[in-house]
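Attaching the record inline, Q. Sequence:
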Amino acid sequence: MLVVPWSDEIVRGRNAVIRHLVQTGRMPSHSQLAGDLSLSEAATRSVLRQMHDVHAVLLGGQDQIRMLWPFSDLPTPFQVTVGDRSYWANCAWDSLGIPAALHTDAVIRAAFADSPGEALITVKDGKVSPGHYLVHFPHPVRRWYDDLVYT
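Structure, as predicted:
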């Protein structure tokens, strides 16, 4: 596996995206991120493409940020509520990653893939309850980037 070091520009861009996301619950637009980074929109798009290339984000159409792990910009079956703010997680695993990333308690609403209904999971003081759910990964990790959106 080839490991590509992140440039200072990529780290700065990722940190700016995270700050905006935590404060607003949404990924920043190009103009918002350009302002946060004091860059032109063209330079910001270049940074975003670099971030995408090293898997720091997943870009969608028109270079919009679709995912910054563990966060999704689009609604998913995994909604994580932290205080008065809600975030979307990319998958069940990422739904646990949001409270871990934010170092806080959370309530997770996760739709079941194989039946109607949902799981209501609480993370308090780093512990998950109830603890009787099973998470299924349909593909091995080495294949996740084959199609990240549907993995």
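The longest helix spans residues 8-24. The first strand starts at residue 58 and ends at 59.

More tomorrow.
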